[in-house]
Specification:
The protein has 22 helices and 10 strands. The protein is an alpha/beta fold. The protein has 2 domains: 350 residues, ABC transporter transmembrane region fold (Up-down Bundle); 238 residues, 3-Layer(aba) Sandwich (Rossmann fold). The strands form 2 sheets. The protein has a 6-stranded mixed beta sheet with strand order 6-7-8-3-9-10. The longest helix has 51 residues. The two termini are 67 Å apart.
Length: 610
């Protein structure tokens, strides 16, 4: 778990090294100041209030070890100041020194926290960017296996959970080990016997914390999985609200949501209860350790078995109590880490997802489209042993139109998805101008292709930005020209703000025909030499279909087109029609020749005529 957390830090920390080193330096300085500020308790108790009547003489370093000399001379000068200036002056001077040291100490604490903020927020920002960029690069097949709500959950709540874990853990993992080491060194300096005794008792505290935090990672991951299910349910509800109301299924959906929500609540409750038990347990164990040390130390001092004086022992207890807080904070970090690691595992599932669509190491040049597209014995499957396409051989010359028809599930959409490499063939090859598309950069390949789909995919933006989507530097004149060709200009000008009108989520403020004409205008503005039409008119009424068909005919002029159609009337004039059945091309030819052949195409045509 700690190893996984440190691996995460090493992966994202390099750009922020300067903040990390600054934090380490300021924390070390703060702990040193903390030790010396509390050290003022000893001379105040021993000399000012005459707890000790020991007389001190000035010593040189040749008279003893460095620690004894420094300690002796410190007391010597304190005695001298009391004799020459008076006890009140020493009290005031000690107070001023304590204030200054505390000011410096708190300034260092503030500085250490401030230097960690850019690191912490920067790492989380980088993770979000990497996840988003990874999602942009993953193939469409990845999203067919994952629920959209769960992916949103990973990109939002899981990353936020990771941010919380980093916020609570990173500073504690840096500050507290430094505090523990510096304070332990001080405790050994004061009494190595008592400190060894403390170190023997510490594993009991660590065991309690380990027992509490052991299951937190699993419970955090379980809670986040339920949260993903909850978001997926919400997404499905919003997307299917019309059907839910039409089929009077509100009660069923409410019950389902309540069940998922209650399951999530129970998972969070179990995790939070376990997390809440850590602080009281560590507080109790820490108090027990201090009381045991107080008994042992008091027995040793009162019995005369140690040279430690009462004031020094009080300072020792203060420093011992001072070390318990860092230990408790460190244990808190250790049980916050499993929560973050549970979130990180779900985020990393996206980051580590393999992308089978590989860019070629040395891309072939494909600056233009000159000859045609050739499918050579193309095979494809989503899962091994279940072929979707088998032995597809097809040649599409430049400027020609090929139409694909057939029943649903025959492989038409899969075949056209292979051209822009939304998926890669699992057998055979697809070549453009004689070059295998797998040898061409994805950017160059897709820049040659325009898509108009059955569902017009638009964005919650202005009409202008939707038409010019993906075309850098498009002018208003170019957008208007594309809209006119797509039969969209008239309804755009009738809207309240013309081309600056917001169209709503997925274009919900427009009709189906209007949305489709905007997507055609977008393809016209891109001006691609290769055009893919995936049932672009199948969901429209007769009037909208006529307007869209006119726009498509203008779009298809002088372009190489692959068109998928259920309505055979829309592809009567295609140069070649390919009839697909169960992943294979079973018939091909012109409309008239296929009708004359009296095969599967004529059967489809007669059914539509009826």
């Amino acid at each position: 778990m700690i190893k996984q957390f440190l691996s995460l830090i090493r992966r994202f920390i390099p750009p922020y090294k300067k903040f990390l080193f600054g934090n380490l330096a300021l924390n070390l300085l703060a702990q040193i100041l903390n030790v010396f500020s509390f050290a003022l308790l000893i001379p105040i108790l021993q000399i000012l209030f005459q707890v000790s009547d020991t007389q001190y003489e000035y010593m040189t370093f040749a008279d003893g070890n460095i620690a004894d000399v420094i300690k002796n001379n410190f007391y010597y000068y304190m005695n001298t100041f009391i004799e020459t200036r008076g006890a009140l002056w020493v009290l005031m001077a000690s107070g001023v020194i304590l204030i200054v040291m505390t000011l410096l100490k708190t300034a260092c604490y503030f500085g250490s926290a401030a230097t960690l903020i850019p690191l912490r927020t920067g790492v989380v920002r980088d993770i979000r960017i990497q996840v988003y960029n990874k999602v942009m690069g993953l193939p469409l097949s990845f999203f067919s296996e994952e629920r959209k709500g769960d992916i949103i959950s990973r990109m939002s709540s899981d990353v936020s959970g990771l941010e919380t874990s980093l916020s609570n853990s990173l500073e504690m993992l840096i500050k507290n080990p430094i505090a523990i080491v510096v304070t332990l060194f001080t405790l050994f300096f004061l009494s190595w016997e008592l400190t060894l005794f403390v170190l023997v008792a510490m594993p009991a505290l660590a065991w309690v914390m380990g027992t509490i935090s052991r299951k937190l990672k699993r419970k955090s991951k379980e809670a986040q999985n339920y949260w993903g299910t909850l978001l997926a349910q919400l997404d499905e509800t919003l997307g299917g609200l019309r059907i839910i109301k039409a089929f009077l299924a509100e009660g069923k959906m409410k019950d389902r949501f309540a069940h998922i929500n209650n399951t999530y609540r129970n998972a969070v409750m179990r995790m939070t209860i376990r997390q809440s038990a850590a602080h009281p347990a560590s507080e109790f164990m820490g108090t027990c350790i201090i009381v045991i040390v107080m008994w042992a130390g008091g027995y040793i001092i009162l019995d005369g078995m140690s040279g430690m004086e009462g004031a020094t022992f009080i300072y020792y207890l203060v420093m011992l109590y001072n070390i318990l807080n860092p230990i408790k904070d460190l244990s808190k970090a250790l049980y916050n880490i499993p929560i973050g690691m549970g979130c990180w595992e779900r985020v990393d599932k996206i980051l580590s997802a393999e992308n089978p669509i590989k860019e070629p190491a040395v891309p072939a040049t494909l600056a233009s489209f000159e000859q045609g597209i050739e499918f050579k014995n193309v095979n494809f499957h989503y899962t091994p042993g279940a072929p979707v396409l088998r032995g597809i051989n097809l040649t599409l010359e430049k400027g020609k139109t090929i139409a694909l028809v057939g029943q649903s599930g025959s492989g038409k959409s899969t075949l056209v998805d292979l051209v822009p490499r939304f998926h890669d063939v699992t057998g055979g090859s697809i070549c453009i101008d004689g070059t295998d598309i797998r040898d061409v950069s994805i950017h160059d390949l897709r820049s040659l292709i325009g898509n108009v789909n059955q569902e017009a995919i638009l964005f919650n933006d202005t009409i202008f930005n939707n038409i010019s989507f993906g075309v850098e530097g498009a002018t208003m004149e170019q957008v208007i020209e594309a809209a006119k060709i797509a039969n969209a200009h008239d309804f755009i000008m009738e809207s309240e703000q013309g081309y600056d009108t917001m169209i709503g989520d997925r274009g919900c403020r427009l009709s189906g025909g209007q949305r489709q004409r905007l997507s055609i205008a977008r393809a016209i503005l891109k001006n691609p030499p290769i055009l893919i039409l995936d049932e672009a008119t199948s969901a429209l009424d007769t009037e909208s279909e006529r307007l869209v068909q006119e726009a498509l005919e203008r779009l298809m002029k002088s372009r190489t087109t692959i068109a998928i159609a259920h309505r055979l009337s829309t592809i009567r004039h295609a140069d070649e029609i390919c009839v697909m059945l169960e992943g294979e091309i079973v018939e091909r030819g012109t409309h008239d020749s296929l009708i004359a052949a009296g095969g599967y195409y004529k059967k489809l045509h007669d059914m539509q005529s009826l």
